[in-house]
Amino acid sequence: MSNFLLYYFMIIMFIFGCIVFISTRKHLLCTLLSLEFMVLMLFMFLFFMLNFLNYEGYFSMFFLTFCVCEGVLGLSILVSMIRTHGNDYFQSFSILQC
Q1: Which residues cross the membrane (predicted)?
Q2: Environment class of residue 33 by beta-carbon count within 10 Å: exposed (0-12), middle (13-18) or buried (19+)?
Q3: How far apart (Å, rounded) are the C-alpha atoms in residues 76 and 88?
């Protein structure tokens, strides 16, 4: 019974991460942090679900690899945005400028 409470807790935390991801529109860094929080909750849910079903955790290594690649891409976009615009505000970033 306590495993199901843990699953519900992780689902609720994932939903909170989605809400923060949708509502954060000022800084790119806050958006990336909420995205990483959602990925962490998905990893925990996947890990506990694989342990509950007595499967190997081999798939979780693939998931972590893709999560690291996603994080690196987000940080590279953040660094290039700071180098070109001087900050990470979405208001100063315009699609019309090259």
Answers
A1: 6-22, 29-52, 58-82
A2: middle
A3: 12
pTM, entire model: 0.80
Structure tokens at 58: 């081999």
| Burial class of residue 78 in the structure, from the number of CB atoms within 10 Å of its CB (0-12 exposed, 13-18 middle, 19+ buried) | middle
CA angle (36 as vertex; 70, 77 as ends), nearest 5:
45
Structure tokens at 90: 């979405």
Q: Count Cα neighbours of 30 within 13 Å in the Cβ-side half-sphere.
A: 13
- The one-letter code for the residue type at 98 is C
Domains of the chain plus CATH, in order, are 1-90 (1.10.287.3510)
